[in-house]
Structures are given as C-alpha cells and as structure tokens.
Amino acid sequence: MGVDPRSPCVIGVAQFVSRPEDGPCPEPLAMWEQVVRAAADDAGASGDVLGSVGSLQVVYCQSWQYDDAPGRLAEALGIDPVHRLYSGIGGTTPQVLVNDLGSAIVAGDLDVGVVCGAEALDTKRRLKKAGEKPAWSHQDPDPPPFPFEAPFHPAEIAHEVFQAYLTFPLWDVARRAHLGIDPVAYRQAIGELMAPMTRVAAANPYAWFPVERSVEDLVHPTAENRMVAYPYTKYTVSIMDVDMAGAVVLASHEAAERLGVPADQRVYLRGWAYGCDPVYVAEHAEPWRSPAMAEVFGTALRAAGLGVDDLGHLDLYSCFASSVHLALDALGLAADDARGVTVTGGLPFAGGAGSNYQTHAIAAMVDALRGDPGTAGLVTGVGMHLTKHGAGVYSTEPGPVTPPDPGSLQVGLDAAHPPVSITDTADGPATVVTYSVVHGRDGAAQSGLAVCDLPDGSRAYARVEDPDVLAEMEATEWVGTPVVLATEGGRNTLRPES
Predict the structure, then answer these.
(1) Residues 92 and 46 reside in one and the same domain
(2) Strands 55-58 and 83-86, sheet pairing
(3) Potential cystine with 94: which of 120, 121, 168, 358 (Cβ 3.0-4.6 Å)?
(4) Nearest by Cα to 155 from 491, 494, 495, 493
(5) What is the pLDDT of residues 404-451, one digit of tens each?
(6) Is residue 331 situated within a structural domain?
(7) CATH code of the domain containing 453
C-alpha cells in the first residue's frame, strides 16, 4: 500500500542557543528568522520550501511583545503565508500547533506550515540587573496583559497558589505517599530519575546547561543548589531564563515529494492528541496520577497504530520531576527505562524556554529518529499546573493518519473524572491530601501549602507558617495527617490536631 499523500511529515528542524559567553544575544525576531531559514535548509529540498509555506505560527514570546509577530517574521523571511498565528502560552503549545498543522494537512487545507519560537529571557534578566532595557524592534505600543491560561480560583488567589514551583511538588508528595515510599528515599529517587537527563544535556550542543551531574549533586542542598520547594532543589527545576530558539517545518507527503525532500529527511507525524485534567490543583481527585495523561498518550499511540513497546525514543515534559513521574506511570514505564525520558536533557538542564520547550523537543526527536531509522518517538507536553496535556507520535515510517476527535476525548475525561469541589474558607477538622514547603533564597523554609480533605467531601487550601510544623513536614510523612483549619483574613491556616 502506498503512502497517503496527505500524511503530515516533518521535513526540517533547527535550533539555536546563545549563551552569555557567546556575546550579545540576537533579539527574538532575529532568532525566529535564523531558525526558520535553517529549518527550511535542513529539509535538503531541491524546491523552494520557504516559498511554499502556507501557515506561519509563532509561539508566544515572553521576552518581548512585537506589534505583529508573525507579520514581522513573514516580512523578514520575504514570504506571504495566508495563515499567520501568534499563540497563547503553555507547555503544550508547540505540539498543539504542530497537531493543528497536521489536522489541516490531512484535511487538504494546507501543504506546508512552520512552527517557531524563541526566548531571550536570560539577556533580558541581565539587562535589567544592569539597569538597562532591551533595544529591540517593533515593540507593541500597547501590549496586552500576560495571557494566563485560565483565571485563578478565588481560593487560589487567597492562598497565593500561583507559581509552578509551589504546585508541582504537590503531585510528587501525593505520589510518594500513595506508593508508600519514605520521604528521604523519594528525594533520592528524584535524583536517580534526573541524573541520566543531565548526561543527555551534556551531549546536546543546544542545551543551556551542558553539564553532567550526579545524583548527590542534584538532591543535596548547597548554597548553589538551595531547596526551592520541598522536595525540589534548584538544580531539579526548570530553568526559564535562557536565550534559545527552535523551528519545525511540517509538510504533506505529496508536498515533500514535490519539493524534492529526500526520503531520509522526513519524519512522519503519526498520531497526536490533547486533553485536560481539572483546572485547579485541589480539584484533582487523585493527585498522584493524571487520567488525562493516560488518555492523551493512549489516544495518540492508537492513532499512530503503535504501542508503548514500539517507541524507541521518549521526551517527557520535565519542568519538575512530578510531570515525568506521572507520565511514566501513565505509560506503564519505570524510571530507569532503557530508552531514557528525554532527547534534549529536559527543561532543568537543556532549558525550559518559556512556552517554546516542545519546539526544541520535537527538533531533537526528529534528529534522533533520523539517526535511528525505523523507530518511533513520543513527545509530551504539560500546561498550567499539570492540567493540560499534549502528545505527538513521530516515526521515520509513514502510517495510517486518523486525526483524533478532541471533543469526544475531553467529554469522556470530564465524565469519568469530575473535579472535587473547593471550599474557599474552612474552620475545623481536615485531613492532609498533599503539601509542599517553600524555601527562601537563604535556603530556610518560609511557608507551606497544603491541600486538605474536608468532612463534607470538598477540598480546601491551607497555608502553614509554623517553623516547627514546616520542619516536621519535610522530615516525616504528612499525607493523611488529621489537622485543624482556621480561617483568618480569608485565608485558611493549618495546625496539627491536638
């Protein structure tokens, strides 16, 4: 059987990194142009790849707001694509954009599309430290407010449940308790999960931190590796302040043929899916797992006609260890799976470039698959507080193409896993479901956040300020502990049950 002419395939990829020692970093627009041109060249085509681009999609850039990002890029490239898009934020964004391009290609609405992104957050940080501002081009004179993925719940506002470093530990603490693993042993396991990732980063020419670290280096708190939020040290959390860019060119099989792209340059997008867990942290009925991950990964693999055992390469979104742990659980894999969990080195080591990490993951996956013909790979993404999940299955071998129905996937998830209701303020008995402890820059514990079950079946957030309780939370297992909540100033506080 011949290849479906509408089969989507990646024909070109490119990455770029500018470290401080490399000199001044180009502005994001210049990086976009550079990587898109490089990705078009990477296709090795005899035809005009850039001139064939019908969709130009730019991942949200946290570093700088242009007045018309895709328009300015099209102008710089000298092309005039009919479809132009500037995305919102989120760790699933690049894969979702690629998924949408894949669906449009299968439907016959598009032949060639580009997804690209860049961040210059490290340069911006260094300029700010020096009291300077970027002198970059085409700034939006009236930039819109930061496009948060969803409005915050009133209880989250009251309890300051905003930052990812506060919420992602909650999943790992819940998982640790569910599995019955000792807290000290679990921190060691985090190091054992991530140390091999550093080896991948050390071999990645585009990694922000191309440095191999030991388990002890990762988990032992030091002045350089302070505890950020228990159980995570600085070395184990995503690094956002990077200067990096990436681009992916996607085409139909027949367009790749027409453009003269060599067969060994093509990596086919075989399956893809997207779905969400409940929006708010306390709404997750079983915070030690992600039903949406399992459904999204399974849907993408089924669409590709492949199983987990058919995958030769993985890149599991790794902003924190919890996102990797829950992904491994959803796939039924062990942390020491011989295939590893990343082709880049992961967000803490290769760099978590704002909303653009997955562009780098897809590019690295394409390179890995080209170097290992006949294999397949899975790229996953996580958005919000482990809420949004996207996946793409890639292979050097074409296969049947059946775009999933995202509506039915989400309807099934919502029906099977309804959110737990949240009570804003609570006084009286409760039971700890999960928790985290935030540390200051001096390394000392500052405050804690707990998610608690209430007698009526709802959930409540609670803050912890007592230093003795914070110390005990890090030394012993507090999941399942009976506590007492008290409301003051619209915020719940927690104390041990007498």
Answers:
(1) yes
(2) parallel
(3) 358
(4) 491
(5) 887 899 999 999 999 999 999 999 999 999 999 999 999 999 999 999
(6) yes
(7) 2.40.50.840
